[in-house]
C-alpha cells in the first residue's frame, strides 16, 4: 500500500508561548532576593518539586489505563495487559492520595492546603472513582466491552483534568531558583512524550477493536505528528519554543534509543492510519513496543531533570 503522508500540525511559536505561560511563574518586579529565597525554601520543605513531578506522571497514566484495558478486552498479551491496567490504576490512585494527603515515601510532605488545588483533585476523583468501580467488578479474564467503553469514554476528560492539576501545582510550587525557563519547557515536552506513547497505544487498539474508532482514527494522526515533531525538537533543538539541543551525551544516546524504539512500531501504526488491520501478534508488538518506548523515554526525562540541577 502507499504510505500515507502525515501532515504536521504542530505550531512551534504558539506552543512555546503556551508552555512558557504554563510552566513558569515570573517573579514580580518588587520581589527581593530574600522573598525568592523564602519561596524556594517553602517549596523544598513541602516537597514541591515532587508534587509537580508526580502530578506530571498522571497524564501518562490516564492514557496507559485505557490502552491496557482495550488490549485486555481484545485478548492481546492478556497477562501483561491485566498487570499494566491494575498497576496504572493503582499508581494513579496512590499519586492522587499523596498529592491530597501527603506521601513521605514519595517526598511529598504534608497535606495539600490550597483550596483551588484541592478542588481540582476532587474533579479527578469524580472521574477516577467510577473507573475503579467498573474495573473492580471484573477481576479475571478479558475485560468486557462495556467496561472498556467506560475508559474509552472517560479517559480524555481525565487527561484534561490531570493537565490542569499539573498547571496548578506548577504555578503553586515551582521553585523560582531551581529551573530556567528553557529547562522547564524541555522537561515538560519530554514528559509529554511518555503520555503520547500510551495515547497512541490506546488509539491503535480502539480503532482495531471498533470502539470509538472514528474519533480514535482522527486523533491518532495528530498524536503521531506531535510525538515525531517533539522527538525531533528534543534531539536537535527548536529555537522557536526555547528548546536547546541535548545538554550531554547520555541524553543524546537516550533519545537515539527512543528513536530506535519508535522505528520498530511506526510501520504498524502507519498501516492502521491507512485503514489496514493487524494480526494479534502485530497488535502485541505495538502494545509492548510502545511500553518499551515509554520506559526509555522515562529514563530520558530523569536525565533531563538531573542535568537541569547540575546547572544550578
What does this structure look like?
The protein is 75% helix and 0% strand. The protein is an all-alpha fold and 312 residues long. It has 2 domains: 1-23 and 178-312, Four Helix Bundle (Hemerythrin (Met), subunit A), CATH 1.20.120; 42-173, Four Helix Bundle (Hemerythrin (Met), subunit A), CATH 1.20.120. α3 packs antiparallel against α6, α3 (48-73) runs parallel beside α7 (181-209) and α7 runs antiparallel to α10 (280-310).
Main attributes?
mainly alpha; Four Helix Bundle (Hemerythrin (Met), subunit A); 75% helix; globular; disordered N terminus
Structure, briefly:
By secondary structure, the chain is an all-alpha fold. The protein has helices spanning 12-23, 33-45, 48-73, 78-101, 115-136, 145-173, 181-209, 213-236, 249-273, 280-310.
The biggest sheet amounts to: none
CATH topology of the largest domain: Four Helix Bundle (Hemerythrin (Met), subunit A)
β-strand amount: under 5%
Give the integer mean of the pLDDT values.
86
Oligomer: single chain
Architecture blueprint of SSEs:
Elements: H1 12-23, H2 33-45, H3 48-73, H4 78-101, H5 115-136, H6 145-173, H7 181-209, H8 213-236, H9 249-273, H10 280-310
Helix pairs in contact: 1-7, 3-4, 3-6, 3-7, 4-5, 5-6, 7-8, 7-10, 8-9, 9-10
Amino acid at each position: 500500500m502507499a504510505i500515507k503522508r502525515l501532515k504536521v500540525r504542530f505550531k512551534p511559536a504558539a506552543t512555546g508561548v503556551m508552555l512558557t505561560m504554563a510552566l513558569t511563574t515570573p517573579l514580580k518586579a518588587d520581589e527581593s532576593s530574600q522573598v525568592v529565597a523564602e519561596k524556594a525554601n517553602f517549596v523544598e520543605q513541602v516537597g514541591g518539586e515532587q508534587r509537580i513531578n508526580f502530578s506530571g506522571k498522571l497524564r501518562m497514566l490516564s492514557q496507559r489505563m485505557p490502552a491496557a484495558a482495550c488490549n485486555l478486552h481484545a485478548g492481546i498479551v492478556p497477562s501483561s495487559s491485566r498487570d499494566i491496567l491494575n498497576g496504572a490504576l493503582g499508581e494513579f490512585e496512590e499519586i492522587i492520595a499523596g498529592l491530597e494527603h501527603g506521601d513521605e515515601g514519595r517526598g511529598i510532605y504534608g497535606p495539600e492546603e490550597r483550596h483551588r488545588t484541592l478542588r481540582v483533585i476532587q474533579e479527578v476523583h469524580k472521574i477516577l472513582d467510577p473507573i475503579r468501580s467498573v474495573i473492580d467488578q471484573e477481576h479475571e479474564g478479558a475485560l468486557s466491552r462495556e467496561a472498556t467503553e467506560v475508559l474509552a469514554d472517560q479517559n480524555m476528560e481525565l487527561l484534561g483534568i490531570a493537565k490542569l492539576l499539573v498547571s496548578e501545582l506548577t504555578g503553586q510550587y515551582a521553585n523560582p531558583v531551581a529551573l530556567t525557563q528553557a529547562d522547564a519547557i524541555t522537561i515538560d515536552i519530554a514528559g509529554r512524550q511518555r503520555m503520547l506513547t500510551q495515547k497512541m497505544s490506546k488509539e491503535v487498539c480502539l480503532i482495531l477493536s471498533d470502539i470509538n474508532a472514528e474519533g480514535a482514527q482522527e486523533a491518532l494522526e495528530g498524536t503521531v505528528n506531535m510525538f515525531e515533531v517533539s522527538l525531533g525538537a528534543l534531539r536537535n533543538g527548536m529555537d522557536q519554543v526555547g528548546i536547546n539541543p541535548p545538554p550531554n551525551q547520555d541524553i543524546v544516546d537516550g533519545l537515539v534509543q527512543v528513536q530506535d524504539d519508535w522505528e520498530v512500531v511506526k510501520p504498524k501504526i502507519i498501516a492502521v492510519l491507512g485503514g489496514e488491520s493487524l494480526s494479534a501478534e502485530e497488535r502485541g508488538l505495538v502494545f509492548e513496543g510502545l511500553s518499551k518506548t515509554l520506559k526509555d523515554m522515562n529514563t530520558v526525562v530523569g536525565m533531563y531533570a538531573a542535568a537541569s540541577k547540575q546547572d544550578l
